[in-house]
Automatic annotation (TrEMBL), chain A:
This is Branched-chain amino acid ABC transporter permease. It is found in: Cell membrane. InterPro entries: ABC_transp_permease, LivM-like. Keywords: Cell membrane, Membrane, Transmembrane, Transmembrane helix. It comes from Paramylibacter ulvae. It is a multi-pass membrane protein. The chain crosses the membrane at residues 27-44, 50-69, 76-95, 101-123, 130-148, 183-200, 236-259, 271-296, 316-335. Its main location: membrane.
UniProtKB/TrEMBL annotation, chain B:
InterPro entries: Leu-bd, Peripla_BP_I. It comes from the Bacteria. It comes from Paramylibacter ulvae. SUPFAM superfamilies: Periplasmic binding protein-like I (SSF53822). Residues 29-354 form the Leucine-binding protein domain. Transmembrane segments: none annotated. Belongs to the leucine-binding protein family. This is ABC transporter permease. The keyword Signal applies. Pfam families: Peripla_BP_6. The keyword Chloroplast does not apply.
Length: 358, 428
């Protein structure tokens, strides 16, 4: 009744091909953006920003990155944790090496460095596919973690091998470091998320995205119709790693403040992001957000309910958290293998007909 | 039994939720799950039991009850952030994260928020320099003291000459394990021993190659910086290659009962450093029995009382309570704020008379904290495992560490931190 497209006529190609062709979606999108930028910074407290919203935004970027590679281009990667580490260490080296460099450039440059590294590790994808590629990227994960542990130059020869983000600010407001106001960090991350998600959406709608999807669906056929697999796969690796690198840099600089490669960017991080992509929905930008929200919010929610409301002992709550989140993942994969994005799509289908399905 | 326990927890939760007049809040960032739970559980139990005992016996600190909020970190830095953010709003007086990774993350945060942090025997060693780190304390001993204590012990058994000997360091490949390397390198120059480094990756279950290397290289001594599941695997592997246990020395975090028990008799003679008493042969444990165990308020399963790591949590809580008392005296108010707590920690004096009065005679070294020195004296003793009696025995007194070497390194590292973060020196 409310959600309908009847009467929504388009008179030009540009309008017909816009991202949100249905007026209701479009307005929903603008209202969400306005809410996120204008209302949220004033209403939520430090705990929500630091413990829930910041990790959600940052992981959303990482999930979009992996979704470009795995969801759109069909190349399975288990190296996301390692690539995030590249972003984080690049950001650290840039921040300490060039103290006057603006943090925005630091983060984009870290993404650039990660894109190069990602393309390097993407080279084997020209020869190997599927599980074998997953194993090759797994090697990247372990190699990168080992490298950042082994070579002291990366952590400026500090005694402990920890990297800590110094304070950097924009327009006089601290964004990194302990004196950063939560609302400022939030807006900083939100800007990155909006710009990157917008870019990703348009990339995947354009010629590049279509090439990626062609390679994903059938690489030989794609090659026959003139898609260059070398260029296509490497751009997918490059763009994906760019996003993941930015996520790693922000995770380290804005969210954690200090990090250590083995603990913060280990193999479990790779799996976490892969789960986000799979649960959210492969090949969907919205799915990346939904997956990130699910994986970040769920444990915090469960913890607050079980420990905060029910007063359970913390260890029992932590164990139940594993059980419940694990169970939900299995349930989702059985009931809706295409993820939360598909659920959303189905809901929209139903809503269009509602309340007169026949 | 499980249900009664649940009910008890629910009851405490309800009483906690009802508006109590300002409590003294001590958050406990514990980990009772994951690969490091073996060490996390006894520490958290000891920490909680001491507060329970003080509440039941003395009615809190200076009459103000203690409220302990436990938050599970799983030794994970991201959960650590979540725990810190969720507890700091409650008026947390002091943080003890029991994780070097979380410590590094919290150092700038607690400094900005004006909350003290106590990292007893772990964390960033150079935080001992109070001139740079205003809110971080790591008395009475730190990692570098530990490294030096181990070397001193080796010097003792070799009549002061270890020229040409080889010491292998088996360490957890993280900030924690890497901390002592610089100190050991300096000490190896000073005493002329050869240092060989063997890293073990998280979580530490896979150590075959490291011990194969030890078997091949035959170092004279092995020093271990391990934690969690890594410890018991290392002790077992050492037993498998028949490495002489009395030449195998663990830092205090590798000195729990749960680390040596799985290896059985083979672990006999294994040594570990400690900076506090072991066993339950202290008068205070009668109070624990009376006020904590008998009313059924023991934390966790209640089976850890008197173990080495439990005693450490117990000791940490004791130091926190004493610091709070000092803060109450300094400021003349009972209901202290985190800033007052910080002053209390900086003015903390622990002497034999105080410990005896608490029923913990000779439980730890006597020391005092000052504005410049947040690290205490760095005294450490050596305990040896007796597999027959299944208990640790202190085989040395609390001996000083090589502060000449360590002091220099502390100044160097803390100054680098100060320069990176534009911190002005205090205490001048």
């Amino acid at each position: 009744m409310i959600y309908r497209e009847a009467g929504d006529f388009k008179t030009s190609y540009a309008k017909d091909q816009q991202t949100f062709p249905i007026a209701f979606d479009r307005w929903g999108y603008f209202i969400t953006l306005a809410f996120a930028f204008l209302v949220v910074p004033f209403i939520i407290n430090d705990y929500w920003i630091n413990a829930v919203v910041l990790p959600f935004l940052i992981y959303a970027i990482a999930a979009i990155g992996l979704n470009i590679l795995t969801g759109y281009c069909g190349q399975v990667s288990l190296g996301s944790g390692g690539f995030m580490a590249v972003g984080a260490y690049a950001a650290y080296k840039l921040m300490t090496g060039f103290p006057d460099l603006n943090i925005v450039f630091v983060i984009f440059l870290s993404g650039g460095v990660t894109a190069l590294v990602g393309m390097l590790f993407g080279l084997p994808s020209l020869r190997i596919k599927g599980f074998y590629l997953a194993v090759a990227t797994l090697a990247a994960q372990f190699f990168l973690v080992w490298l950042f542990n082994k070579v002291p130059w990366f952590y400026n020869y500090s005694a402990s091998g920890q990297i800590s983000a110094p304070e950097r600010s924009i327009f006089g407001y601290a964004v990194t470091g302990a004196n950063a106001l939560p609302a400022v960090s939030y807006l900083f991350c939100l800007c990155f998320v909006v710009i990157l998600a917008w870019a990703a959406r348009n990339l995947t709608r354009g010629a590049n995205g279509r090439k990626w999807m062609a390679i994903r669906d059938m690489d030989i056929a794609a090659e026959i119709i003139g898609v260059n697999p070398l260029k296509t796969k490497l751009t997918a690796f490059g763009v994906s790693s760019f996003y993941i690198g930015i996520a790693g840099a922000m995770l380290f600089a804005v969210y954690l403040g200090a990090a250590e490669v083995g603990e913060a960017f280990g193999i479990s991080k790779s799996f976490l992001i892969l789960f986000m992509v799979i649960i959210g929905g492969l090949g969907s930008i919205f799915g990346s957000f939904a997956g990130a929200a699910f994986m970040v919010l769920m444990p915090v929610l469960l913890k607050n309910v079980m420990v905060g409301q029910l007063g359970w002992p913390t260890d029992m709550a932590a164990h139940f958290e594993f059980v419940i989140v694990g169970g939900l993942i299995v349930l989702f994969l059985i009931v809706e293998p295409h993820g939360l994005a598909q659920l959303w799509r189905l809901a929209k289908e139903k809503l269009r007909l509602w309340p007169f399905p026949h | 039994m499980k249900m009664t326990k649940l009910a008890a927890f629910a009851a405490t939760a309800i009483t906690m939720a009802s508006p109590v007049l300002a409590d003294l809040v001590f958050p406990s960032l514990s980990y009772r799950t994951g690969p490091y739970a073996a060490g996390g559980i006894p520490f958290a139990d000891g920490y909680a039991d001491y507060f329970t005992m003080v509440n039941a016996r003395d009615g809190g600190i200076g009459g103000v009850p203690i409220k302990m909020i436990e938050c599970e970190t799983g030794y994970n830095t991201e959960k650590g952030v979540e725990c810190y953010e969720s507890t700091k709003g409650e008026g947390a007086l002091v943080y003890q994260p029991l994780s070097t990774g979380i410590t590094y993350q919290l150092i700038p945060k607690v400094t900005a928020d004006g909350i003290p942090m106590h990292t007893m025997g772990y964390g960033r060693t150079s935080a001992a320099n109070g001139k740079v780190f205003s809110n971080v304390f790591n008395y009475p001993a730190n990692y570098w003291n530990g490294a030096s204590n181990a070397v001193n012990h080796i010097l003792d058994i070799n009549d002061g000459n270890i020229e040409g000997k080889t010491i292998a360091l088996v360490y957890h490949n993280s900030a924690y394990g890497k901390e002592p390397i610089r100190t050991l390198e300096e000490l190896s120059k000073k005493h002329g021993f050869k240092l060989s480094l063997l890293a073990v990756d998280h979580p530490g279950q896979e150590q075959k190659s490291q011990w194969l290397q030890i078997r091949r290289e035959k170092p004279d001594y092995v020093v271990m910086y391990g934690w969690g599941v890594m410890n018991q695997v290392a002790v077992q592997e050492a037993a498998n290659i028949r490495f002489p246990m009395e030449n195998f020395i663990g830092i205090w975090w590798s000195g729990g009962e749960h680390d040596v028990l799985p290896a059985g008799d083979a672990a006999n003679g294994y040594k570990a450093l400690t900076f506090h008493g072991v066993g339950k042969d202290y008068p205070v444990f009668a109070d624990v029995q009376k006020y904590v165990v008998e009313p059924g308020n023991a934390a966790g399963a209640g089976d850890q009382i008197g173990t080495a790591v439990y005693n450490r949590g117990f000791y940490a809580a004791m130091l926190a309570v004493e610091a709070a008392k000092t803060a109450q005296e300094i400021h003349g108010v009972k209901d202290i704020t985190p800033a007052m707590m910080r002053d209390g920690m900086e003015a903390l004096v622990i002497d034999e008379a105080k410990m005896t009065a608490l029923g913990m005679p000779n439980f730890g070294p006597s020391f005092s904290v000052s504005c410049e020195n947040h690290g205490g004296p760095g005294l450490g003793g050596v305990a040896q495992w007796d597999a027959g009696a299944k208990e640790w025995k202190l085989i040395s007194d609390y001996a000083p560490s090589d502060m000449e070497v360590i002091g220099e390194l502390i100044v160097e590292d803390s100054m680098a931190f100060a320069a990176e973060n534009n911190i002005e020196e205090r205490c001048n």
